[in-house]
Each structure stands twice: as C-alpha cells, then as structure tokens.
Amino acid sequence: MGDLIPLFPLGSPLFPGIVLPLQVFEPRYRALVRDLLAQPEDGDGRFFGVVAIRQGWEVERVAPAQALYDVGCTAHLQTVRPQPDGGFRLTTVGGDRFRLLDVLVGGDDEDEDGTPYLRAEVEWLAEEEAAEEAAGDQEVGSSPPGGGPDEGLVAEVARGSLDVLERGVGSLFTRYVSAVASLQTGGAETAVAGDAQDLEGTDALLDVVDGDARALSYLVASAALLTTEDRQALLAESATRRRLVAETRMLRRELTLLRTVGAVPAPLQQFAGPTSLN
C-alpha cells in the first residue's frame, strides 16, 4: 500500500518547482481546500496531488485508471484567498513526483469516509541523479590500477556533458520563445494555437534557473507550448539528463514547425466538450 493523498485532476501536468495558480469553484474541491487548511500551517500536510487528465473531464464517471495519467506531482499551498461565493483562489508550487497505484472515488456528495473528492494511493518517484553519480563513482573506484580512467574522470565527463546539454536547451528555448513571440506579432497569416501568454517572462526565469539543469528542464517542460502527451512524458522521466535530451528533440521539432507551418500544437482539451468549473 502506498501513501494516501488528495487528488486534483487538471488538463495539463504540474512540474516540480513550478508555480500553479488555481481558482476553486466546485463544492468537492472547496471541501479539499478546507481540509488542507485544517492541517497545521507549519506542518507538511498542506498539499494535494495534481494529475493530468488523459480522456474526458468527468473523471469519476469513467475508470480513473483510464481517465488519468499515472504520473503526477504534488502541489503545495503557498497562499489561499477565500472568495465571497465560498470558493478559493490558490497559489501552489510543484513538489514531488508520484505514480498512481489506486484511485478512490467519492460519491456525489461524500463517500463513506466523508470525503467528496478523489484520493489516490501513490508511490513516490525519486530523481535518478544521485544514483547515476554513485554508479559513476563506483565505476571509477573499481577500475584496476593503470587500466582505467584517471580518478574522477568519468564523473567530470558526466558533469561536462550535462553542462553542454543545459546550455543547448537554454539556447534552443530562447530561440523558441523568440519565434513564438514573432508569430504573435506577425499578422493574420500566422497563428499560435495555444496559450502563448504562458511564455511571458521566461527570459527572466532562465536567469533564475541558470546553473540548475534540473530546474531548467522543468521550466522548459512547463512553459513550452507542447501537447499534454509531450509534457507528461517529460514529467515521467526521472533523470535530468534524459529529460534535457528529450527537450532538445522537442524544441528542434517545434522550431521546425514554427518556421514551416507557423503554428504550435494546441492541447486536445482545447477542443473538448464542456469542462468542470475548475
């Protein structure tokens, strides 16, 4: 059995370290916020899990295993502003990644435990950087005298290649943001299919994450106008190195599309039927 956490399905995944504002309308999620506010303010219990919706919007009416992606990220409350109508405006920030093991569905009003919102049993997913570094150190340490690389060479090469990847993705993303901005002001013959406003301010954010390859990888994954499927694949990737490699391919693909088609992908949810208030 995994840990039991509240669940909040959304149209796109959340990434560690990324700020997510939310406006909560539905009664069941108002109850979720009230339950979180009942937790000690100085404790670590004021969070819920965000998972992307794979199909449909009324998740409770279909099998959650089919309706939801299986990898999500926790959202930790930063600010809560109650609204006159009983709803809430939230500011949250992405925390830890997890994998769904099982989803518990509440009833129309509340389930037998008095919980009207979704909950999930989850297992926590660790980043692989520490394991990769340890494996590299072990490889160096086990090299026979005179027959292997110099002490620390493997780790140095690994760090160097990560730095190269980081610089490459940062450069590609800067070009990508510039290309999208050009389309926004390029007239009626070109179009940006998606919320291009998500890219505003990313130049400043690139300065903030400078030197932090993991943070850069999550910034690009959240800010680039990718499909939900692409974003989900990046969230499910546990190693920064592999995530940056995948983003290199995706950004090159998107730059080619911007040049030849004059558009970026729109999430399929944009064309879906009626959605929930949240």
Detailed description of the structure:
The protein has helices at residues 27-37, 64-67, 129-141, 153-184, 202-208, 213-223, 228-236, 240-260; strands at residues 3-10, 19-24, 47-52, 71-82, 88-104, 119-124. It is an alpha+beta fold and 278 residues long. The protein folds into two domains: 3-125, LON domain-like (Archaeosine Trna-guanine Transglycosylase, Chain: A, domain 4); 129-260, no CATH class. Strands 1-3-4-5-6 form a five-stranded mixed barrel. α6 runs parallel beside α8 (240-260). The longest helix is centred in the middle third of the chain and has 32 residues, at 153-184. The radius of gyration is 21 Å and the shape is globular. The protein starts with a strand and ends in an 18-residue tail after the last helix. Residues 108-112, 133-145, 187-196 and 267-277 have low confidence and may be disordered.
List the helices and strands and how they pair.
Layout (H helix, E strand, L loop, with lengths): L2 E8 L8 E6 L2 H11 L9 E6 L11 H4 L3 E12 L5 E17 L14 E6 L4 H13 L11 H32 L17 H7 L4 H11 L4 H9 L3 H21 L18
Parallel strand pairs: 1-3
Antiparallel strand pairs: 1-6, 2-5, 3-4, 4-5, 5-6
Helix pairs in contact: 3-4, 4-6, 4-8, 6-8
